Amino acid sequence: MSKATTPPEANPEASAEANQAQVQAQIQAVEQAQSPEALMVAVQNLATSQSAAAIPALIAVFGYNNPAAAAIALRAVIGWQEAAVAPLIAQLDEYNYGARAYSMRALATIASGQSLEVLINAATNDFAPSVRRAAAKGLGNLRWETLPSNDPNTNPKSNFSADPSPDQGEAQRRVFAALSSLCTDGDWSIRYAGVAGLQALATRVKELEQTVVDFLNQHQESDRSVRARIQWAVNSEQ
Description:
Layout lengths: L11 H20 L4 H12 L6 H7 L6 H13 L2 H9 L6 H14 L5 H10 L3 H12 L27 H15 L5 H17 L4 H10 L5 H13 L2
């Protein structure tokens, strides 16, 4: 009688190796694509991967000067949520502001507390308006429950605390300061983004709601579009 063999699907190690080989082949296809069309197909295939190993390669697509492929990669990266935050921060492109803007859009949509410092720095210091606007959106929509906690009593199995950390109030005040500073920028689109970010912050952090409303009521704005956005924000919070 011949010895029974284990079906591949019943062997976890063999299955993991096969999956790893598949994602590496998909990554290689992206890196070696010889045309925009081939790149699109390769990125679409990689976007379906269930392996976190795909994340850095998807982020790299942001710098390939192919907006359609970048849009596919962006959706896939956002789908990874918290798992994508550290790679996004590590791979921020200092030289390609277009790629940096895609990364900032991903961070803004995920809105993790892990990206607090990066978002503040980008919103207030980056030279590219698209990067600054995306960062402003992210600051307004931060999910405060994901802010890294310095509390030693936090569950050691998690980097995050479900309860407000001692530093959360200070972080929220820093975000308010960053967003309010955007409202005096020379670029009207940055001021607009600052107002939108402040409204989102007031909605999420009720302790700052009146502070935001008071600031916007006192703000002197010359641009009609920004004035209208301020009025909408104030009316929404009252």
